[in-house]
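Severity: low
Component: inverse-folding endpoint
Summary: output formatting inconsistent between runs
Steps to reproduce: submit the following structure tokens with default settings.
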């Protein structure tokens, strides 16, 4: 459908992919946000479904180009970090379904938009599905300014998105990796990988991001099952 560039980032546990949003996907997302703001498409309050301490989180329509991009990135993630024949990937019922002629596909099933204000945050959490992603739409602050709020803090992560994961071969069992939030960058990672978003303090404008969950599902069988 279209080309896109991405980079892979490894940190002992399976890492994440980072992609600058292609211009055609960006325009699609901007158009959909405008329609949401004008009440031209239906949206539902998602706060009860999510972990965020945010004042506004709503459903977001699954759009064609964004769906294609994130599903394609899932396939790229598997080829870089995972092996389907390792016995550690998609064990549940996969063998029998393959024998019955099914193919499997990464499918984006849920999508939502987050509107964060000063002091709002996302506590440590993980998602449903096989993969998740975050797309930063608007970052209303500069990290250099945020760092000045608590200049002497050990591990000051103000305004940052961070991953939290077990670390092997170390006396410190837990590690964290901050990811710099850049407008119109998208990161994709395993849904079970814990992450958090720290509050910001230097802007009264909203921080806007879009997130979604992708599942690995069987699709229509290519062959008829033999009758016994």
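Observed output (run 2 of 3):
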């Amino acid at each position: 459908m279209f080309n896109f560039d991405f980079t892979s980032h490894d940190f002992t546990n399976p890492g994440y992919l980072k992609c600058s949003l292609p211009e055609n996907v960006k325009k699609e997302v901007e158009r959909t946000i405008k329609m949401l703001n004008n009440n031209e498409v239906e949206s539902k309050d998602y706060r009860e479904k999510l972990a965020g301490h945010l004042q506004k989180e709503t459903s977001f329509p699954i759009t064609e180009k964004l769906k294609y991009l994130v599903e394609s990135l899932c396939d790229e993630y598997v080829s870089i970090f995972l092996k389907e024949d390792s016995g550690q990937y998609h064990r549940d019922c996969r063998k029998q379904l393959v024998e019955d002629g099914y193919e499997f596909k990464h499918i984006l099933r849920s999508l939502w938009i987050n509107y964060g204000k000063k002091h709002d945050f996302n506590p440590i959490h993980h998602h449903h599905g096989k993969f998740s992603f975050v797309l930063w739409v608007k970052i209303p602050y500069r990290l250099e300014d945020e760092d000045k709020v608590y200049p002497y803090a050990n591990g000051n992560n103000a305004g940052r998105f961070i991953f939290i994961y077990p670390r092997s071969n170390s006396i410190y069992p837990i590690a964290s990796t901050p990811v710099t939030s850049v407008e119109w960058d998208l990161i994709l990672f395993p849904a079970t990988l814990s992450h958090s978003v720290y509050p910001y303090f230097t802007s009264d404008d909203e921080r806007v991001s879009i997130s979604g969950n992708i599942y690995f599902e069987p699709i229509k069988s290519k062959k008829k099952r033999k009758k016994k």
